[in-house]
Write a structure and sequence with these properties.
Blueprint: H1 3-22, H2 28-34, H3 43-50, E1 57-59, E2 74-81, E3 84-91, H4 102-118, E4 122-128, H5 144-151, E5 157-166, H6 167-170, E6 178-182, E7 186-188, H7 192-199, H8 205-209, H9 211-218, E8 223-225, H10 228-239, H11 266-269, H12 280-287, E9 294-296, E10 304-311, E11 314-321, H13 332-345, E12 352-358, H14 365-369, H15 372-385, E13 390-399, H16 401-404, E14 416-419, E15 424-426, H17 430-437, H18 441-452, H19 454-460, E16 466-467, H20 473-483
Parallel strand pairs: 3-4, 4-5, 5-6, 5-7, 6-8, 11-12, 12-13, 13-14, 13-15, 14-16
Antiparallel strand pairs: 1-2, 2-3, 9-10, 10-11
């Protein structure tokens, strides 16, 4: 061994000691008590699960070691997901409850800054108590929430809530594109003790912001996973539909069902009588490349289905009325969900398929008090401003503003617009409209007949590019996508 090597030895030993301290999390006992005994992965296991094996490179591994706060409660860095570079950070609940101090804030800002600078996605995993009250020194970094807000629309952003997440930390969720919660997670601006002190209300974490509340009632999260592993795998799957950054082409999905094929099964799924319900999920599954449809936010606003699917290997957005819920009527929750999805997908190159089958936007006192006029208007604005390729198919019915929000407007920058032959459409349903206008029997029958000829009247004015056989639906969509392939 040379003299230089011998002189290096104490320096290297000190580095190893500090690295070990930084990787210790809250120590074996706390890791076992708070994570492993509850069936959860610890922060470092979560990071390792997210990335392809052997590709993770940690950033800021020595932060907090001088204060004996390993990682300052936040593990972060970069690695590959299915071979593509991604940044990620995970709150470490075993270190001061995953609370956010100055070093933690700096690391959060750093990975968001790098995501914007290098043009790669960002994944955040939450389980923490929010701002650390005992940390009053402040951070040298700008606010991490500012960086998250600025990053939105530049790269895909995924948030996974994997335990209780409160306050400042939880705000990473609404600033992200896609939010997954494990079944045992909860998320809120302030936890039960703060609520009790502020309002006197006794409430559990689950009642305040459990997974069911957030995904079904509040809409503040999108999808639920049963455990840590499934949630992380879902995040990996979601990112597979997107390019690394806005402006890049989406990845191609090479599968065995990428070619044209007729779909005769649709004749068994879709009743031509528009008063009979059916589940639009079956239609979507049949027309997409087999096994590629990924639904987003299924429990919230179920009268509209939104998600990602592939046609000919190309990822596309899907926005579809579901006649199995409220006859497909667009209520406030459905409009909010669709608006958020359209605004998010507009940052990327995905064509969007609209499948319209609704009797209009929801009417009545409940709907008005929930803000359907406001949210229906915002959904239309999001649709109108969408510059992606748009393909619209009117399935059976579309009345009034319900057709407008579903991109049925003629000459609304659709790449192609179609209708099935049984379509019934007008400003409003003939039966209700006739009663309102006090039409006589002869006029009423005439109006109803006109509505039944809706697809042909529409096609006659080129308000629709064609009336199609349901069995042709998938191949028609593939042809329309080929028209848009030079975008």
């Amino acid at each position: 061994m040379s003299d230089h090597r011998a002189q290096w030895q104490p320096w290297l030993e000190e580095l190893d000691r500090r690295r070990e301290a930084g990787a210790a999390m809250g120590g074996p006992e706390r890791v076992q008590k708070y994570m492993h005994s509850r069936g959860k992965l610890d922060a470092r296991q979560r990071i390792e699960r997210l990335f392809d094996p052997g590709t993770f490179r940690e950033i800021g591994r020595l932060v907090g070691t001088m204060e004996d706060i390993p990682g300052d409660g936040f593990v972060c860095g970069y690695g590959r997901i299915d071979g593509r570079m991604t940044l990620a950070g995970a709150e470490d609940f075993t270190v001061l409850g995953g609370s956010i101090g100055a070093g933690n804030t700096a690391k959060r800002y750093r990975i968001a800054e790098l995501a914007a600078q290098e043009g790669v996605p960002l994944v955040t995993m939450l389980e923490g108590a929010g701002h650390r009250l005992t940390d009053t020194g402040g951070s040298r970094a700008p606010g991490d929430l500012q960086a998250y807000a600025d990053l939105s629309g530049q790269v895909p952003m995924v948030c996974i809530v994997m335990g209780a997440s409160a306050g400042h930390g939880a705000l990473a969720a609404p600033l992200s594109d896609f939010v997954i919660m494990t079944s045992y997670a909860s998320m809120f601006t302030g936890g039960p003790p703060l609520v009790k002190a502020a309002t006197g209300e006794d409430v559990t974490k689950e009642e305040l912001g459990g997974a069911d509340v957030c995904t079904r009632i509040a809409g503040s999260a999108h999808n639920v996973a049963p455990d840590d592993e499934t949630a992380i795998d879902m995040a990996r799957h979601y990112l597979g539909y997107f390019p690394l950054r806005s402006g890049d082409p989406s990845p191609y999905w090479d599968g065995s069902d990428n070619g044209p094929r007729p779909v005769p099964e649709l004749l068994d799924v879709i009743p031509p009588n528009d008063r009979l319900p059916y589940d639009m999920h079956h239609v979507i599954e049949l027309i997409c490349d087999a096994g590629t449809f990924f639904e987003i936010q299924p429990a919230y606003g179920p009268a509209i289905i939104v998600g990602l699917g592939c046609f000919g290997g190309r990822p596309c957005g899907v926005v579809a009325n579901n006649p199995a819920h409220l006859a497909g009527s667009v209520d406030a929750a459905a409009a909010i969900k669709a608006t958020d999805f359209l605004e998010m997908i507009g940052h990327y190159d995905h064509p969007v398929l609209f499948l319209a089958d609704n009797p209009g936007v929801m009417a009545g006192t409940k709907a008005e008090r929930e803000g359907i006029l406001k949210w229906g208007g915002k959904m239309y604005r999001a649709e109108r401003r969408l510059t992606n390729a748009k393909i619209e198919i009117t399935m059976r019915k579309a009345f009034g503003f319900g057709s407008v929000v579903m991109a049925q407007n003629p000459f609304d920058r659709q790449t192609q617009s179609y209708a099935l032959p049984s379509v019934n459409m007008a400003a409003m349903p003939a039966e209700a409209g006739g009663r309102s206008a006090k039409l006589d029997a002869e006029t009423q029958a005439e109006v109803e007949q006109q509505q039944r000829s809706g697809p042909y009247r529409l096609a006659n004015r080129l308000g629709s590019d064609d009336v199609i056989d349901p069995r042709e639906m998938r191949n028609t969509i593939l042809d329309a996508l080929s028209l848009a392939e030079n975008r």
